[in-house]
Amino acid sequence: MPSEQTEAQERALVERLRSSLRGEVIDRRHPGYDEARAVWNGLIERRPSVIARCAGTADVVEAVAAAREHRPVVSIRGGGHQVAGSAVCDDGLVIDLSHMKGVHVDPSARAARAQAGVTWGELDRETQLHGLVTPGGEISATGIAGLTLGGGLGFVMRTFGLSCDSVRSLEIVTADGKVRTASREEESDMFWAARGGGRGLGVVTSFEFDLHPLGPDVAVVLVLHPYERAEEVLRAWRDATYTAPDTVTPEILLWSVPADPAIPQQLHRSNCVMAGAVYGGPPDDGATAALAPQRELGPPLMDLSGTVPYVMLQSANTWRFPDGERYFMKSHFAEELTDEAIRTLVDWDSRRPTPESLIVIRTLGGAVARVGPDDSAFAHRSARYNVSIDAGWQDPALDETAIRWARSAWEAMKPFSSGGAYVNFAGFGEDASELRGAVFGSHEERLERIRAAYDPEGLFAPAARRP
């Protein structure tokens, strides 16, 4: 239980926020407290002192001012889908932007402005009215803010780059309470840091994105292969990635067959290898030819490839990662995928604790690698692959087993990595110190200087230390 002094400090902070915010202020006594502190990952159980549910940028300015006066630990919530649950903190202030949902699309300028509480599904819905996209993640419920600030791997990244590569500008409230616009022309250091530097820079309230012609339909590969051929399929897939054009973004998953009505019931939840790819252009004969090597990896269980609406592609896996279930994800970047690495992956995948757990390998290069290595804070432009070990489960009794499997598989893959890690798939708080250099690489020192310049008293320092 909080001490009398702590309770008094909390009351003072709550009263300060209620006197100045237009949005809702939710303290421990509020009937909606438990719902408001919950995030997508059911493994996260944190109890903040107060949640400032901001209605707009002016509320964010007031929340930052209150934090400066009362000095609680601060966390920032956008769409709320981030695996490590950094959106919420214990016994501190959550600056909650999840209800800031404005989106404006300017098709003639091929640009979109979106507030920080928007999810990728919500943004895609608006941009696809005009046959335009900005590269997002692979789950429609993911928030645009956290994914973009950490870099943003996605289905069309080899064609259009990372999510952060399409940022034209962003609005951010810094620790001094100023509302700043960061772009290549203004606050250029902040703009550099926000594209891949993760958390701890301030409170980003909106993003302006470049948009690219794609959709409404896209050509995709989705081929299910029998698990007993896993090593063979992985080797063939790896070889096919070497010659994939930039218009093709391949990935491969060691997972379980989904319980989809389109798939025979006897296959549901059985282990398989899923080869996927997306073509970042018109779904015509050129797409068919470019995607062919990703379909021709050997005799399949099922070939579900074809043409689908882009919004359907982006939401196709969302149901497999429902709110409230338990997740732990940790990844490596790798320059190569050797035969020994493949054997190690298949060995550890065979020990998966649940059907919901998976191993996924994403292919970088293309537009990702064309950005200069020091042009943004994202430190892994030269990597060919990202290998992510993703534990998913429902039963709290499996917490230790599932997390131990993911950590052990990650350790087993360490000899095959480039030493780099992706901040959005970087474990939990206890992994932060170990992975800090791996996440930011040679950019870490510059990031620290920029954070210190905008936040000399360390108001957002706890957020900067989280994965």
From TrEMBL:
UniProt key word Disulfide bond: no
InterPro entries listed in its UniProt record: FAD-bd_PCMH (IPR016166), FAD-bd_PCMH-like_sf (IPR036318), FAD-bd_PCMH_sub1 (IPR016167), FAD-bd_PCMH_sub2 (IPR016169), FAD-linked_Oxase-like_C (IPR016164), FAD-linked_Oxidoreductase (IPR050416), Oxid_FAD_bind_N (IPR006094), Oxy_OxRdtase_FAD_BS (IPR006093)
Domain spans labelled FAD-binding PCMH-type: 43-214
Annotated keywords: FAD, Flavoprotein, Oxidoreductase
Gene3D superfamilies with a match to the protein in the record: 3.30.465.10, 3.40.462.20, Uridine Diphospho-n-acetylenolpyruvylglucosamine Reductase, domain 2 (3.30.43.10)
Superkingdom in the source lineage: Bacteria
SUPFAM superfamilies to which the protein is assigned, alphabetical: FAD-binding/transporter-associated domain-like, FAD-linked oxidases, C-terminal domain
Classification via PROSITE patterns: FAD_PCMH, OX2_COVAL_FAD
Cofactor(s) it depends on: FAD
Pfam families noted in UniProt: FAD_binding_4
UniProt similarity note: Belongs to the oxygen-dependent FAD-linked oxidoreductase family.
Protein name: FAD-binding oxidoreductase
Organism of derivation: Streptomyces cuspidosporus
